[in-house]
Design brief:
The protein is of the alpha/beta class. The chain has one domain: 3-Layer(aba) Sandwich (Protocatechuate 4,5-dioxygenase, Chain B). The protein has nine helices and eight strands. An eight-stranded mixed sheet has the order 4-3-5-2-6-1-8-7, sandwiched between helices. Strand 3, helix 2 and strand 4 form a beta-alpha-beta unit. Helix 1 crosses helix 3 and helix 4 runs parallel beside helix 9. The longest helix is centred in the C-terminal third of the chain and has 18 residues. It is globular. The model has no long low-confidence stretch (mean pLDDT 96).
Length: 273
């Protein structure tokens, strides 16, 4: 296939719980989530072509081996707690594409990865919340792929490499997480130390993403040594989807697709290709 038709890979923020579909927490302005929501809504225009399907790697699903969720139809996992009652009645009637699930497993096997299938689990909020904004009509099939429990950055980059051919097959590969994910500090906008750490890590991430691919991967593998790294990610499950999409990017360069100070913390999204 001509590489002109190759789809990019994306690392997107999925916000906090059902944040786009409720009022912000008391004390925060009504526009708190507007810039992030605008970025997510603008993705279809930004990528320029409609994918045949989306493969999503969410920070909210981990398994011992990469596991594919590719049902014909999905339930939803309201895996957030303490939010308004109406947010547990949100709907997103996405369909799956089982054939893509099979293809994902084929590619992983070729690269030496064992994988599993899952058919009972619902889509978690790292998928249905942002995609209610990206494709609000739920008219693009979705397949979800888990992270590995070990959260090994090199392994997740390699998983991305294995899946890169999907970009030439009409599949949009999306990592859904948050580039800053220290929930203890997130809602403390006046904590100068954590705010500064988030900016330092965000700056490092932006420089890393824009580096040539070999250097980009070397830096991502060693992300824990970056300034502000563990302050920004006490646990790395919301960062690891970035490794998958960076691996799937191959030789394509990355760029910052969205950036803002959100509640004092630097948050970004990235696009490759």
């Amino acid at each position: 296939m001509n590489t002109a038709s190759r789809l990019p890979t994306l690392y997107i923020p999925h916000g906090g719980g059902p944040c786009f579909f409720m009022d912000p927490m008391p004390g925060f302005p009504p526009t708190t989530w507007d810039a992030m929501a605008a970025y997510l809504r603008g993705i279809p225009d930004e990528i320029g072509s409609r994918p045949k399907a989306v493969l999503v790697i969410s920070g909210h699903w981990e398994c011992a081996e990469p596991t594919v969720l590719a049902s014909e139809k999905y339930s939803l996992l309201y895996d957030y707690y303490g939010f308004p009652e109406h947010t547990y009645r949100l709907t997103y009637p996405a369909t799956g594409l089982p054939a893509l699930g099979v293809r994902v497993q084929e590619l992983l096997k070729q690269a030496g990865f064992n994988s599993q299938q899952e058919h009972q689990r619902g889509l978690d909020h790292g998928v249905f919340i942002p995609f209610k904004l990206i494709y609000p009509d739920a008219d693009v099939p979705i397949v979800q792929l888990s992270l590995r429990h070990d959260l090994d950055p090199a392994a997740h980059l390699a998983i991305g490499h294995a899946l890169s051919a999907l970009r030439d097959e009409g599949v949009l590969i999306v990592g859904s997480g948050l580039s800053y994910h220290n929930l203890r500090e997130f809602f403390s906008p006046h904590n100068t130390a954590s705010n500064q750490a988030s900016v330092e890590f965000d700056t490092w991430l932006g420089n890393t993403i824009s580096a040539v691919p070999a250097e980009r991967e070397r830096l991502l593998i060693n992300w824990e040594s970056a300034p502000g790294a563990r302050s920004s990610h006490p646990r790395s499950e919301h960062l690891l989807p970035l490794m998958v999409v960076a691996g799937a990017a191959g030789n394509d360069l990355g760029k910052i697709a969205y950036n803002e100070l959100l509640m004092g913390k630097a948050v970004s999204a990235y696009q490759f290709g």
